[in-house]
Design a protein that fits this description.
Blueprint lengths: L8 H6 L14 E7 L7 E9 L3 E6 L10 H9 L5 E6 L16 H15 L7 E6 L1 H12 L4 E7 L9 H11 L7 H12 L2 H5 L14 H13 L7 H12 L5 H11 L4 E6 L7 H13 L24 E5 L6 H4 L1 H22 L1
Parallel strand pairs: 3-4, 3-5, 5-6, 6-7, 7-8
Antiparallel strand pairs: 1-2, 2-4
Helix pairs in contact: 3-4, 5-6, 10-11
């Protein structure tokens, strides 16, 4: 059977589902909160809270991602089970509906932005927060765990790293998203972004997402439609601020001692590390380094390399939960929607039990 041809930008825009790639999920609370008043601000951060349950989930998106990118998990937890979960999603500084100052960004400063949003919402209790960060959002989550460990009930670090020491996928995606260095036709740019973020097998599958009018031919076409929509709204996705986020991610660093401190103060049994072996954006060895730092206080050991998943010790279990998935790409919460939801719910319930056990 011949491979499905990717839809062109014109075809995507004419598809009846094009204007429905972002779901109309009604938040229980939304607005903008001014942060960083003594840190070069104020900077207004756009946020939404979905659901009204007592399990408070905080979702932090990665480079160039907006709050709606969490819509699958938002629907599955905060709408389907809204009596159990409250979920905070937000646009980091520089993207979406949040302010876009032209200044030096860092993952530490962006973490403080999120903390100040949480303070304003009154989510300040001990062991209250179930923190999920993907990619650059996982770096921001590490900084939050370093700053406010005792407010965190569980910590999920997805497709991320304590530092980026092998940046080929990161730089390629940066070029394709920001149109840098060697400008390429829009279809090629979007195709390259798709290949960096998702596995080839998932991209070629029929569109699996709930549709309003009719599905796209493939998962890859649906993502391309959403990426095209974002590029046609430059006020939400300015190139300069995307680069400032990229600088923050590129300079992020947590030492083995920092990771050991996070693990000790948050608690190893409250932490989950998730990474796919075929991640082209932040390659799999980064996830191994992160897990080893949290579990053992080790830094880069020299054993990390692309293809290292053949080593047996990579698959050994420890106190820090490890979800290393063979053959998966960068955006596991999308590619493995049901499984990821189950992992999160399991970790949340473990955190709640640990709270009860520890008083």
């Amino acid at each position: 059977m011949a491979e499905q041809r990717p839809m062109t930008p014109d075809e995507l825009q004419q598809h009846p589902e094009y204007n429905h790639t972002i779901w109309d999920l009604k938040p229980s609370q939304q607005g903008k909160i001014a942060v960083a008043k003594n840190r070069g601000g104020p900077i207004n951060i756009a946020y939404e809270v979905h659901g009204h349950g007592d399990r408070h989930i905080v979702c932090i998106m990665g480079l160039g991602g907006m709050k709606y990118a969490w819509q699958r998990l938002t629907r599955d937890l905060a709408h389907t089970k809204g009596d159990q979960y409250s979920m905070l999603v937000l646009d980091n500084r520089g993207i979406g509906e949040s302010d876009k100052p032209l200044m030096r960004y860092s993952t530490s400063e962006m973490a403080q932005d999120v903390i100040e949003v949480l303070d304003s919402l009154g989510w300040t209790g001990k062991r209250e927060l179930h923190l999920i960060g993907v990619s650059m959002g996982g770096m921001i989550a590490q900084e939050m765990a370093f700053k406010i460990p005792h407010r965190i009930c569980t910590l999920s670090l997805v497709s991320t790293a304590p530092s980026i020491f092998n940046t080929s996928g990161f730089i390629e995606n940066l070029r394709n998203r920001a149109n840098l260095f060697i400008p390429k036709p829009l279809p090629q740019q979007i195709e390259n972004v798709k290949r960096n973020l998702f596995s080839d097998s998932w991209l070629s599958l029929p569109d699996s997402l709930e549709h309003v009018v009719e599905p796209f031919p493939t998962n890859g076409d649906r993502f391309a439609a959403n990426e095209l929509w974002k590029r046609t709204h430059p006020a939400y996705f300015p190139k300069a601020n995307f680069l400032l986020q990229a600088v923050a991610a590129g300079w992020h660093y947590k030492s083995p001692a920092d990771l050991k401190k996070i693990a000790e103060e948050v608690g190893k049994r409250r932490i989950m590390v998730v990474h796919g072996t075929k991640d082209r954006m932040i390659s799999f060895p980064h996830g191994v380094v992160l897990w080893r730092g949290l579990e053992k206080g080790e830094g880069k050991t020299g054993r990390e390399y692309v293809g290292m998943e053949v080593e047996e010790d990579v698959w050994e279990e420890g106190e820090v939960e490890k979800r290393f998935v063979r053959g998966q790409g960068h955006v596991l919460p999308i590619e493995m929607r049901e499984e990821f939801k189950g992992w999160v719910e399991g970790l949340v319930e473990r955190g709640v039990r640990l709270n009860e056990e520890e008083g």
